[in-house]
Amino acid sequence: MFDRFLPYSRQLIDKEDIEKVSSVLKDDFLTQGPRISLFEKKFANYVGAKFAVACATGTAALHLACQALKLKPGDQLLTSPITFVASANCAQFIGADTYFADIDLKNYCISPKSLEKILKKRKIDVVVVVHMSGHPANLTEIYKLKKRYNFKIIEDSCHALGGIYKKKKIGSCFYSEISTFSFHPVKPITTGEGGMITTNDKKIYENLLKFRTHGIHNIKKNFLNKKLAFDKSGKVNQWYYEMTDLGFNYRITDIQSALGINQLKKINQFIKLRRKIAKIYNKGFAKNKLITIPQESTDVKHAYHLYTILIDFKKLGKSRNEVMQKLKDNNIGTQVLYIPVHLQPYYSKKYGFKHGDYPYAEKYYGKCLSIPIFPGLKKKEIYQVINKVNQIISIK
Ligand SMILES: Cc1ncc(COP(=O)(O)O)c(C=O)c1O
To answer: How far away, in angstroms, is 67 Cα from ligand 1 center?
Structure first.
């Protein structure tokens, strides 16, 4: 029995993180200060993108991404049913429609084959590609479809900071217009709540900045209301700003950014630790015939935000609820990530989605269980998890 409860994921905060956050509290700027742009610069540099915009949450990042791409009411956004609801909801915030393509059971990400089937029948404006669990989706195949069917790509990279696809870091936007991240405490790095958006397109970047702050900008050359903007000598009025679109307050604070900067320094170490745990788990479950372990394609680096096993509950003769409870009784937290989004009442009522619409997603959902993986997990705990899981998931 563990002397602490192990959640499926959690943050790792050290003394330096605490010092960096505390020092902001003594400074002039708690928000709208220099740490935000420093965090953005360091982040863009790490993932290899030209621009980064920090914001309030991963959900805000997705909403801003749709706004910056000028998604309109009635436009069509498609994503994977196996994701957090936010990847689908971002279209709804705007009045656009949400559709889904099935997943590939090799990596639990969107299946290019299923996507193409839909593209042949339906006009899709934006595809939100989710790098599920931290395993990069098949970006080259999806990119080929983008060229053929003319849609934009938002990578929902909330699980995949530190992941690599064909030598390019996730977030580099090599195959997409935009990539979005979350810094919720379960994610690869944390700022409490927080998000980041990366892009290589200057226009998109300017739009993101504008929508993050109420639709306001202060780019002199873009001012429309010349009379208000400039004095008689043609100098710009110091107080002047212009609201050209309906935006939001989706800002991150300097307090959060200070934590983000310090967490980002440790991302490679965090991913190394996550990958090490995954390797030990893979070995530990290899002989268990009731468990399917996650796969990693040869051309990617899995960031292992989640370690999700598929369990044959039928053969086991126990329900997932029973298994979760037994593990919980042993201080092992697990989670089901995710309930297929098309089966959420909001979506099934609005669009008529039903059981059987996305068979692979539903098959995955029937079997998945995410077990603890996070950088602070001790070696002894990893082996204890393996022993308990193998003990509970076995036919006596
Ligand atoms: C795939 C995915 N997209 C988006 C989000 C939303 O991020 P946040 O919780 O920071 O709003 C999450 C977080 O749970 C997520 O896992």
So the answer is: 17
